[in-house]
Amino acid sequence: MLIAAIFGRCHAWGYYSPRICNVPVSGLYACMPAATPPNPPPPTAACCNSLVNANYGCLCSDRVSSELRSHGVDPNLAMLIPGKCGLPNPGHS
Fold it and tell me: How far is it, in rounded angstroms, from Cα 26 to Cα 15?
């Protein structure tokens, strides 16, 4: 719901690249398979590229994290994605 609500508001305001926690919504969607159990594939280049400027503190916030969980995202798998992309560990940023 949060993703859809933000996309709807941003699109209505004329923005064509809505973001959540400094990640394009399209990037979050690109990362979802890599964070969805039971056998997630490796993150795609689109996913990795979208996380370069991510605000991990924001993504890990209770509000955003619970919304992502409601879409089937496993937070533990999601935390592994930056490392799989060769990006800094979110726990250290």
Answer: 13
Give pTM, 2 decimals. 0.76
Residue with tokens 């689109």, as numbered in its chain: 46
* Structure tokens belonging to residue 9: 């508001």
- For 81, the 3-state DSSP assignment is helix
Tens of pLDDT, residues 5-57? 444 554 555 555 799 999 999 999 999 999 999 999 999 999 999 999 999 99
Domains in the chain: boundaries: 2-92
Q: Decide which of 1.10.357.10, 3.40.50.360, 3.30.390.10, 1.10.110.10 is the CATH code for 2-92.
A: 1.10.110.10
Q: Rounded to a whole number, what is the distance in angstroms from the first to the last CA of the chain? A: 27
Query: Does 38 sit behind a cis peptide bond, omega within 30 degrees of 0 on the bond before it?
Result: yes
User: Tokens at residue 47, please?
Assistant: 């996913």
